[in-house]
Write a structure and sequence with these properties.
This protein is mostly beta strands. Helices cover 9% and strands 34% of the residues. The protein has one helix spanning 8-12; strands at residues 15-20, 27-33, 36-37, 41-42, 49-50. The protein is elongated, with a radius of gyration of 13 Å. It starts with 7 loop residues before the first helix and ends in a 6-residue tail after the last strand.
């Protein structure tokens, strides 16, 4: 995947973020764009769900 900085395509490319699960503190990998999740993600340890569009 090409990194396109400073142009519209670069802004539309989701970035992988590692965040702490708010419930159990396990590390969860989330793809985010403009500070929001772009897909539903579930914590494998406790089952907490981050929905598409939730802020990360």
């Amino acid at each position: 995947m090409a990194l396109l900085r400073g142009c519209q395509e670069g802004k539309q490319t989701p970035e992988l973020k590692e965040i702490e699960c708010p419930k159990c503190k396990e590390i969860i990998e989330v793809f985010a764009k403009e500070g929001k999740s772009v897909e539903d993600v579930k914590c494998e340890k406790c089952g907490f769900e981050i929905k598409e569009g939730d802020p990360v």
